[in-house]
């Protein structure tokens, strides 16, 4: 496995399936900024509510190969292994990355259990073999990841941008290492001058 953080950049994602697993995957994709379509014969109430509230596309009907046109990421999340296998084949033909919840090794990726605080994200992935255990591990690891980490992360990102503009290459690493070791509450409370703003 290659752990990466993937930017959506307005790309399209498709989930085939309408149950609880599809709802969890949909939440993650929407949080990451993907334009999302969900196709399923039956879409449960939780997923329907999420899709309607977030402006995602909902197709409550049988899956068709054309549903994947223009998709960057596809997730096969039905309880029908043969249908999931077909979705994987179709996604590969479309040139999309594909994940298969019924047989993770058949797909190109798995999605980690995550805990987000602002832009900071902690993820744990078991390669799809033990998702419930991954969720437990991420909860334990993120136990100390309180809300102060979000402003601390923003402050550090702004200071990093400033340091990169202001100091020579050989000085940057030492400065940033020292800043990164400051207490979280101290980083979170640091004012960010306009000259340090990253956005």
What does this structure look like?
The protein has about 200 residues and is of the alpha/beta class. It is built from seven helices and seven strands; from the N terminus they run βαβαββαβββαααα. The protein has helices at about 20-30, 45-55, 80-95, 130-140, 150-165, 170-180, 185-190, and strands at about 10-15, 35-40, 55-60, 75, 95-100, 115, 120-125. The strands form two sheets. Strands 3-2-1-4-5 form a five-stranded parallel sheet, sandwiched between helices. Strand 4 (about 75), helix 3 (about 80-95) and strand 5 form a beta-alpha-beta unit. Helix 1 (about 20-30) runs parallel beside helix 2 (about 45-55). It starts with 11 loop residues before the first strand and ends in a 10-residue tail after the last helix.
Quick overview of this protein structure:
Helices cover 41% and strands 17% of the residues. It is an alpha/beta fold and 199 residues long. The longest helix is centred in the last third of the chain and has 18 residues.
List the helices and strands and how they pair.
Layout: E1 12-16, H1 20-31, E2 35-40, H2 45-53, E3 57-60, E4 73-76, H3 81-94, E5 97-100, E6 113-117, E7 120-124, H4 131-141, H5 149-166, H6 169-180, H7 184-189
Parallel strand pairs: 1-2, 1-4, 2-3, 4-5
Antiparallel strand pairs: 6-7
Helix pairs in contact: 1-2, 5-6
Chain-averaged pLDDT: 88
Radius of gyration: 20 Å
End-to-end separation in angstroms reads 32 Å
Low-pLDDT windows of residues: none
Coarse morphology: elongated
Strand content is 15-25%
Largest sheet: 5 strands, parallel
The number of E-state strands comes to: 7
Order of helices and strands: EHEHEEHEEEHHHH
Q: Which percent bin holds the helix content?
A: 40-55%
User: How would you classify the helix and strand content by structural class?
Assistant: alpha/beta
How many alpha or pi helices?
7
Q: Order the strands across the largest sheet as they lie in space.
A: 3-2-1-4-5
């Amino acid at each position: 496995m290659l752990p990466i953080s993937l930017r959506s950049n307005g790309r399209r994602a498709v989930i085939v399936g309408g149950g609880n697993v599809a709802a969890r995957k949909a939440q993650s994709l929407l949080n990451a900024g993907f334009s999302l379509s969900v196709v399923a014969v039956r879409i449960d109430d939780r997923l329907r509510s999420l899709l309607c509230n977030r402006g995602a596309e909902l197709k409550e009907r049988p899956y068709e190969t054309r549903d994947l046109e223009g998709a960057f990421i596809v997730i096969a999340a039905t309880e029908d292994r043969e249908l999931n296998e077909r979705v994987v084949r179709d996604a590969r033909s479309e040139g999309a990355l594909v994940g298969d919840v019924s047989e993770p090794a058949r797909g190109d990726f798995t999605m980690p259990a995550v805990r987000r605080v602002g832009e900071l994200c902690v993820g744990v992935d078991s390669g799809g073999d033990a998702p419930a255990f991954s969720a437990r591990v991420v909860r334990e690891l993120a136990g100390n990841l309180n809300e102060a980490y979000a402003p601390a992360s923003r402050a550090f990102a702004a200071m990093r941008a400033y340091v990169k503009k202001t100091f020579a290459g050989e000085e940057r690493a030492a400065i940033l290492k020292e800043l990164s070791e400051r207490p979280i509450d101290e980083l979170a409370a640091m004012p960010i001058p306009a000259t340090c703003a990253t956005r």
